[in-house]
Design brief:
This protein has 372 residues and is an alpha+beta fold. The chain contains nine helices and eleven strands.
Length: 372
C-alpha cells in the first residue's frame, strides 16, 4: 500500500476548511448568535410564545452550526499535531491512527461543504415529504412503503425526529401514500433533491409466475411553513370532512371520528391527517401540510413566470431521478448524477447520504436558478 502523502492531504483539508469558513461567515454567525442570545434572555420573551419559539429555535440551530464549525477546525488542528508527532517519532501505529483520522475528517468536511451549498430561500427549513405509489399496481404500493421506510431509517440514523401525519394503506400490500415531517435544520434543502419519480425493477413477490416487474413511486418534498410566511387561508375556502381513522386492511384504529380531510376549494388541493389522537390535533397538522402545499404552489407559479420570460419552458430535472434494480443484477443508480451502488439493501435501510450529497452538488452546478 502506498504511503499517505500527509503534507498534500493536510493542505487539501486546510483549503476545504478555509472555503467552508469563508462561505459560512463566522464573524456574522457569532454576532447573530450573540444577538439572539440577548433576545432569548429577555424576561418578557415568552409573552409572545410564537416569537419566542422562532428566536429559541433559530438560536439553537445557529449555535449547533457554529459548534460544528469550531469542532471541525479543532479536529484539523489536532490531526496536524498527531501527524507531526507520528513523523517525528517514526511511529507506525500513530501514523496508522493519523491515516484513519484523516479519512474521517475528510468525510466530515465533505458533509460540511455540502451544507454550505444549501443557501436557497427555504433550504434551512424542516421538510414535509409525501410518497405516492404510481404505475405498477401492488408492486408500486409495496415500493412506496419501502421508500417510506428508507427515509424514516435515514432520519433515524442521523438522530432526526420524524412525525408521520397520514398513511393511506393499499388493499393488498404497501401504501397508496404517506406524508411525514423531518424535524431537522436543512432537512428541506437536503431532501429536496429526492423529489421526482423513483423506479424499481425486480422479480415481483406478488406474481405467482415470478415475472420481472417495473413499478414507480413519486416523492414530493416541501418546506415546512414558518410563522413569517403569512399563508392566509379564508375559512370559506376550506371544506372540512371528519371520518374514522383506519389502518392496514381497514382495521379500526380509532373508535371516534378523529381523522380530518381538508379540501382547499379554489385549488382542489386535498390533505388528510389521521395519525394524531384527537380531531383537533389532526386538523392542526393537516392545516400545516395544506399551508406548505399552497406555499409551494405559489413558488412554482412564480418560477413558471420567470421560466416563461426566459423562454426555457421550465425544468424537469426532478422526474425519473433514480432506479433501484434488484433483478437481473443489484444496483441503485441516480440518473442525474450517475452516482450508483451495488448494495440496494443498504440503500433501502437508509444509507442514502452519497445520493443526497451528489444530488446537492449536481443541482448547484447544473441548475442554479431553478431551486428556491
Amino acid at each position: 500500500m502506498a504511503a499517505v502523502d500527509f503534507p498534500v492531504r493536510l493542505r487539501e483539508l486546510r483549503q476545504t476548511l478555509g472555503s467552508i469558513l469563508e462561505v459560512s461567515d463566522l464573524p456574522a454567525m457569532r454576532a447573530q448568535v450573540a444577538e439572539l442570545s440577548e433576545q432569548a434572555a429577555a424576561p418578557d420573551l415568552w409573552d409572545d410564545p410564537e416569537r419566542a419559539q422562532v428566536v429559541t429555535s433559530k438560536l439553537s440551530h445557529l449555535q449547533s452550526e457554529l459548534d460544528r464549525l469550531d469542532s471541525m477546525s479543532r479536529q484539523v488542528d489536532d490531526l496536524e499535531t498527531l501527524v507531526e508527532m507520528a513523523q517525528e517519532e517514526d511511529d507506525a501505529d500513530t501514523l496508522a491512527e493519523a491515516e484513519a483520522e484523516l479519512t474521517q475528517v475528510k468525510k466530515a468536511l465533505g458533509e460540511l461543504e455540502v451544507r454550505t451549498l444549501l443557501s436557497g430561500e427555504y433550504d434551512a427549513r424542516e421538510a414535509l415529504v409525501t410518497i405516492r405509489s404510481e404505475a405498477g399496481g401492488v408492486d408500486a404500493a409495496d415500493f412506496a412503503e419501502m421508500l417510506l421506510r428508507m427515509y424514516l431509517r435515514w432520519a433515524e440514523r442521523h438522530g432526526y425526529k420524524t412525525e408521520v401525519y397520514d398513511t393511506s394503506y393499499a388493499e393488498e400490500a404497501g401504501i397508496k401514500s404517506a406524508t411525514f415531517k423531518v424535524a431537522a435544520p436543512y432537512a428541506y434543502g437536503t431532501l429536496s433533491v429526492e423529489q421526482g419519480t423513483h423506479r424499481l425493477v425486480r422479480i415481483s413477490p406478488f406474481d405467482n409466475q415470478g415475472r420481472r416487474q417495473t413499478s414507480f413511486a413519486g416523492v414530493e418534498v416541501l418546506p415546512v411553513v414558518a410563522e413569517t410566511d403569512h399563508i392566509e387561508i379564508p375559512e370559506n375556502d376550506i371544506r372540512i370532512d371528519v371520518y374514522r381513522s383506519s389502518g392496514p386492511g381497514g382495521q379500526s384504529v380509532n373508535t371516534t371520528d378523529s381523522a380530518v380531510r381538508l379540501t382547499h376549494l379554489p385549488t382542489g388541493v386535498v390533505v388528510t391527517c389521521q395519525n394524531e389522537k384527537s380531531q383537533l390535533q389532526n386538523k392542526a397538522a393537516a392545516m400545516r401540510v395544506l399551508q406548505a402545499k399552497l406555499l409551494e404552489r405559489a413558488r412554482h407559479e412564480r418560477q413558471a413566470e420567470l421560466d416563461a420570460l426566459k423562454g426555457d419552458g421550465g425544468s424537469s430535472w426532478g422526474n425519473q431521478m433514480r432506479s433501484y434494480v434488484l433483478h437481473p443484477y443489484q444496483m441503485v443508480k441516480d440518473l442525474r448524477t450517475e452516482t450508483e451502488t451495488g448494495n440496494p439493501t443498504a440503500v433501502f435501510d437508509g444509507d442514502i447520504d452519497a445520493f443526497l450529497e451528489s444530488g446537492i452538488r449536481w443541482r448547484r452546478t447544473s441548475e442554479p436558478t431553478t431551486h428556491a
